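User: Can you fold this complex?
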Amino acid sequence: MDKFQTFTGIVCPLDRSNVDTDAIIPKQFLKSIKRTGFGPNLFDEWRYLDHGEPGMDNSARPTNPDFVLNDPRYAGASILLTRENFGCGSSREHAPWALEDYGFKVIIAPSYADIFFNNSFKNGLLPIVLNAATVDRLFEQANGSHALELTIDLEVQQIRVGEAAPIGFDVDAFRKHCLLEGLDDIGLTLQHVDDIRAYEERRQQQAPWLFD
Amino acid sequence: MKAKTLYDKLWESHVVREEPDGTALLYIDRHLVHEVTSPQAFEGLRLANRPVWRASANLATADHNVPTTDRSKGIADPVSRIQVETLDQNCADFRILEFGMNDPRQGIVHVMGPEQGATLPGMTVVCGDSHTSTHGAFGALAHGIGTSEVEHVLATQCLIQKKSKSMLVVVDGPAGPGVTAKDIVLAVIGRIGTAGGTGYAIEFSGQAIRDLSIEGRMTVCNMAIEAGARAGFVAVDDKTIEYVKGRPFAPSAQHWDQAVAYWQTLHSDDGAEFDEVVVIPAAQILPQVTWGTSPEMVSPVSDKVPDPRDEADPVKADGMRRALSYMGLEAGTPITQIRLDKVFIGSCTNSRIEDLRAAAAIARGRKVAESVKQALVVPGSGLVKAQAEQEGLHKVFIDAGFEWREPGCSMCLAMNADRLEPGERCASTSNRNFEGRQGKGGRTHLVSPAMAAAAAIAGHFVDIRDLQA
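Assistant: Here's the predicted assembly.
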């Protein structure tokens, strides 16, 4: 995983609550056995007017001009601004893979579904929680005639825009550390091999049927 | 000693180590594997040259992509076929037991696991599938994980976790006539909302839950995730132990008594404190039908489609308008006047033998309405299918005009050939009514198996209580 570095990016405002993982990446694209290449099919059913299937030439498909990702103002956006309970539904990690493959590095919303939230961190995608009033304000700014650009600084946990006072955000210390250092969870856990073995021995004494 | 919740007990018995900030390494007893969320995890192991930590803790089957029609010719869709073959190859390479597509024990992973006794009380159970909460019906701590975590469990038999908050949902008193586990859980979601359980582990209790069979409890726990909770569970009782007894992966005779003695401790202690308690009188719950594009958009069958103008919250009202537009419904339409194009009885929520019996009881001696283009019955596993056929249920369905299929996830998420066409409306016993879930432009109404069967016969929703009266 790459280290998460401070960057400045364009905000794409997706003004819907309860955006589910079926909407983020529809099921037909889950047949891939790879981790990459999902970006062109991110939000496929909202983004294109036809029905998408794996293997299609997406550049030749008719796009939906009313969908925000197709608005030229937000071309090259790397920050997705959205509403409550983003990422609800299935556990498919293809959802963060698709967001990341498209170019998003940060999501800002008042709340997320648990599994999606967790999956995002495993892929270097930072889901930021801000209160609903701040999210409202960012929506107003992002909906203006000029794209809103934000600087995301994970180290000091701040979102900066122009000369305005920075917006602070909370993040779990362990997850922050992993993002900043680009750490692989499995490598970290395998530092505790002895603890896992000791647990298994204890457990086998207490609950031998689990090892039948 | 401080009174403990069931969640406390399940959590504490699996902590391998804990950091001062509460981040814990949690041991996983059972890992279920299917073809969609595992290939990239196995690939990761290969790239890092890591072995599987404990192969015998894993059990695999192909369910999402498999055809539900004749399988003798294999899978027609080449992309689906590669994914299923990749699972076969990965399981062979890493020596993981798999019930392949043509094994009689194959089935939806959340039907197959419990039926094999691979899910036991007190276990931690994970799978790269959000409906893993199903296994909580056994007094297990079970939840869905993403592919990175699938790889993590394969490599270490552990997960990095923080403890959730605890919620007790009490469904108080006996359920009324025609009210099933599905109606109970839809009513709970309608009450607390699809994000109501976010950050919580939910224990379901109360007489209406205790009265349910194990199959019914699986239906309830299955949809805990639709209320936002990764895990939902029910305390162990005699029914739990009776269900497990004699199954292939159940404890050996040598360890059985010891296991039972432990399982009998798997309930919340008197006086245990929860972060949140929700009490719903079971008598208030009627047969449910969803009318929107989120499981919380649900009403009793005797109601009308709600009007967004009656919703005070503007964001919610906007969501309702969008949902009604997608669903092609007018506010104020009686639910019983909604006509269906297709009916789907199946999925990890409602494809067990009890579900098929309930649907067959309605279908027996009746005919699917001519206006219904297709009515599918997809058993949850090969063993459920065999049991149903032994009871003659397949004949009841076929005589009534239903199609009797091979087991798999099927039209719940339409990864195989079973799907809705744009604009088609379906009464479905599955778990998600999201836009496009059953096929692009498809319109899904979630109901119980009996309600789905009744809708197939009438061509529109009917109040099951009228049929049973």
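Chain B has a mean pLDDT of 97. The longest helix of chain B spans residues 78-93.
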